[in-house]
Amino acid sequence: MTTPLLAVDDLHVAFRTRRGPARVVNGLSFELHPGRTLAVVGESGSGKSVSSLALLGLLPGTADVRGSAIFDGDELIGRSEEDLRKVRGAGIGMVFQDPMTSLNPVLTIERQIGEALRAHEKVSGDGVRSRAAELLTEVGIPDATTRLRAYPHQLSGGMRQRVMIAIALAGNPKVLIADEATTALDVTVQAQIIELIEKLQDEHGMGVVWITHDLGVVAGIADHVVVMYAGRCVEEGAVDELFGRPAHPYTRGLLGALPVVDDPRPARERDELVTMPGLPPDPADLPPGCAFHPRCPVRADARCATEPPPLAPVPGSAAEHRAASFYVAGGERA
Ligand SMILES: Nc1ncnc2c1ncn2[C@@H]1O[C@H](COP(=O)(O)OP(=O)(O)O)[C@@H](O)[C@H]1O
Ligand SMILES: [Mg+2]
Fold first, then answer.
1. For the chain, what are the domain ranges?
2. Which residue's alpha carbon is at the smallest distance from atom 19 of ligand 1?
3. Which residue's C-alpha comes closest to atom 16 of ligand 1?
4. pLDDT tens across 230-263, in order?
5. Contacts by 217-224 with C-beta closer than 8 Å and gap 24+?
6. What is the position in ligand 1's atom list of the atom closest to the CA of 283?
7. Domain 6-91+171-323 has CATH 3.40.50.300
8. Which tens digits make up the pLDDT trace of 119-144?
């Protein structure tokens, strides 16, 4: 096994709110290896975005962050803003769903890619323009020199997302975090962007963290999957193993909600992962024991309501397939 590019260990994030601490991330751990794709899935509100923002120091001052995240040998948690600024872009590139880090509407594409280039590479003047054009071509934007003069509103949603990827890649990062990067796009553009990221990943050896609530895309792109619920990993494993033999009642519920693969409707109109009855818990009022027990269709007994189940190997599965439930598929765990 290679040394992980990114090793997150027991990450906790709580926001100070008037209602008391909102415990949004509650002991998340995962590893990302070079050239691999890790998918982080879970319903909206499960803490996927907050976790990645915490790694990069992008949360507001009301957030208390604990735990460890070793990137390329160095601890990220607790580092200064100056240090983290160097990590962002050149070490870890990010692509978010609009509008979270949407493009600046009043600057040309050239200016925006140029800023990213100047921040990370020692290029200036004409070097910036030609490297920016190269990046646009690399992300599949035709007629790059013309497009460089365009403003964001002059481009389609798919093109803007490609520009975001070009900006994320400007620093030649070792890790790319794609947070719902294709969720707002139609399925054809989504497929093109996924293909593009895979190609760049092969060429650059990047590790990719692919965050999504759309399980439909995960099977095709991920090597390893982490399923989040209420800020914890409740199940993880190699993609075939996890889809083939889901063990946690929550994962089995999510897989029941898988959208049809050739569904022509845009992603946002397809079924999202909400067909499971009930709602995720309020992070300011987490239930004791297993956070999933109030919704669990399998069994919720006195133990589930008092004792948090540890993330432990699934009996009879590959070692890296782990689930946090006293009632994994195939029988009770001792
Ligand atoms: N700045 C904040 N202050 C308080 N709560 C927040 C803040 N940002 C996010 N949250 C809460 O954290 C939870 C997880 O959010 P998020 O990580 O965005 O979920 P998702 O899994 O959909 O990406 C949600 O309940 C959200 O309301
Ligand atoms: Mg999110």
1. 6-91+171-323
2. 45
3. 47
4. 999 999 999 999 998 999 999 988 887 444 444 4
5. 217/182, 217/190, 218/39, 218/41, 219/243, 220/194, 221/37, 221/39, 221/194, 221/197, 222/37, 222/38, 222/39, 223/36, 223/37, 223/38, 224/36, 224/37, 224/38, 224/39, 224/320
6. 25
7. yes
8. 776 677 778 899 999 989 888 888 99
